[in-house]
Amino acid sequence: MDFKDGKPAPGALPAVRRAALIVLAVVLGAAWGGGPVPTGGPAHLLSVKAAKCVRLGKSGGRETLINRCGDCRKVKLQRRRPGGNFPTARTITVPELSQIELSFLGPGRTRIVSDQSCRAAADRRDDGQRCTRLKVMKNGTLALVNQCAICRIAVVERAQPGGGRKMRTVVLAARAAVPIAGQGQARVLTEKSCR
């Protein structure tokens, strides 16, 4: 910095202000969750940021939900079309570390309203009784079999050849079997009584 008569030169002052603003931005960014949070900082801001596992993305011109966490997530979406008065609301379950293509077509804006673990929701709905299981049938197809004498609803997740996963809700009559389409590994996520 150049000094003239003990004072900074006229061109040096903007550089000092710029450096002070940069330091201020770094400190505030760290305090608000934009970087490493110092010990004793606002931990509540960090927990809100960490809770967001699912984000919106684009793939092949279509909107997708991308789950970056190792936990199943239940996401509530709102979609507003141009000129539309009311937004469309949807709830979608996204398996861990996967992405799901959304079925919204045409112009519009989609936003995530909430993102929560689906384990808590599944625990409330799952009645604890295990009646369904996956079984390879004699013809080589995979089927979901209900071994109980009551109707059951189950959510089955199946891996897809491209690396994605698809979930399907299956209603099974008492002692019935339903084929599960697709290839790859499958698992029953939840099940409950039809009543």
Task: Give the structure's gist in a few sentences.
This protein is of the alpha+beta class and 195 residues long.
Write the SSE topology.
Blueprint: E1 3-4, E2 7-8, H1 13-31, H2 43-51, E3 54-59, E4 62-67, E5 73-80, E6 88-94, E7 99-101, E8 109-117, H3 118-125, E9 132-136, E10 142-146, E11 152-159, E12 165-172, E13 177-179, E14 186-193
Antiparallel strand pairs: 1-2, 3-4, 4-7, 5-6, 5-8, 9-10, 10-13, 11-12, 11-14
Architecture overview:
By secondary structure, the chain is an alpha+beta fold. It has three domains: 3-45, no CATH class; 52-122, Sandwich (Immunoglobulin-like); 126-193, Immunoglobulin-like. It is 18% helix and 41% strand. It has three helices and 14 strands. It has a three-stranded antiparallel sheet with strand order 3-4-7, with no helix packed on it. Strands 6-5-8 form a three-stranded antiparallel sheet. Strand 9 (132-136) and strand 10 form a beta hairpin. The protein is elongated.
